[in-house]
Specification:
Subcellular location: Cytoplasm
CATH architecture: Beta Barrel
Low-confidence stretches: none
CATH topology: Small Protein B, Chain: A
Keywords: Cytoplasm, RNA-binding
Number of domains: 1
Largest sheet: 7 strands, antiparallel
Helix content: 25-40%
Structural class: alpha+beta
Distance between the termini: 40 Å
Number of strands: 9
CATH class: Mainly Beta
InterPro entries: SmpB, SsrA-bd_prot, SsrA-bd_prot_CS
Organism: Spectribacter hydrogenoxidans
Strand order of the largest sheet: 1-8-9-2-7-5-4
Mean pLDDT: 86
Family: Belongs to the SmpB family.
Radius of gyration: 19 Å
CATH superfamily: Small protein B
Strand content: 25-35%
Length: about 160
C-alpha cells in the first residue's frame, strides 16, 4: 500500500519585502485587500509583482499603495495602456484605518508592505506599522544574528 505523492501546491506568496525587516522595527501587522485591474491579476498569477520599494500612505481616510511594480504580461489586452507603477487602493476595515491613522499621525510610525500573497483566490497585502532603524540598530541586529548562528554551530559540535 504505497501512498501516491500529491502534486506540489504552488506557493501562495507572490512577493516578499525582505529588506523591511532590516531597515525597520516592525510592530503590528495588518492584512489588506487590493483593488486591481484584470491585467494586474493575470500578471500577479504569473509572479510579476514587486513590493520592495513600495510604501503605504493614508489620505482622506483611505489607504493607498505607492511604488509597487506589477510588470504587465506581453499578451495583455491591446485596448488598454498598462501602468506598472500606478497607485492602488487598499481595502481595510474602518477600525483598522482609524488605528493606522492614529499611529502614523501621533506616534510617528510609517506603513510598510511586507508580503503580497493569495488568500482564497484574492490578492492580499500584509502591511506593518514600522519605525525606522538607525545605523547602530542595524549593526546591533547583525551582531545578534552572527551570535545566534555561532551559538547554533557550537551546540551542534
Amino acid at each position: 500500500m504505497s501512498k501516491a505523492k500529491s502534486p506540489k501546491q504552488p506557493s501562495s506568496t507572490i512577493a516578499l519585502n525582505r529588506k523591511a525587516k532590516h531597515d525597520f522595527f516592525l510592530e503590528e501587522r495588518f492584512e489588506a485587500g487590493l483593488v486591481l485591474a484584470g491585467w494586474e491579476v493575470k500578471a500577479l498569477r504569473a509572479g510579476k509583482g514587486r513590493i520592495t520599494e513600495a510604501y503605504v500612505i493614508l489620505k482622506d481616510a483611505e489607504a493607498w499603495l505607492l511604488g509597487s511594480h506589477i510588470h504587465p504580461l506581453p499578451d495583455a489586452s491591446t485596448h488598454i495602456d498598462p501602468d506598472p507603477t500606478r497607485t492602488r487602493k487598499l481595502l481595510l476595515h474602518e477600525r483598522e484605518l482609524s488605528q493606522l491613522i492614529g499611529a502614523t499621525e501621533q506616534r510617528g510610525y510609517t506603513l510598510i508592505p511586507t508580503a503580497l500573497y493569495w488568500k482564497r483566490g484574492r490578492a492580499k497585502l500584509e502591511i506593518a506599522l514600522a519605525k525606522g532603524k538607525a545605523k547602530y540598530d542595524k549593526r546591533q541586529d547583525k551582531k545578534d544574528q552572527d551570535w545566534q548562528r555561532r551559538k547554533a554551530q557550537i551546540m551542534r559540535s
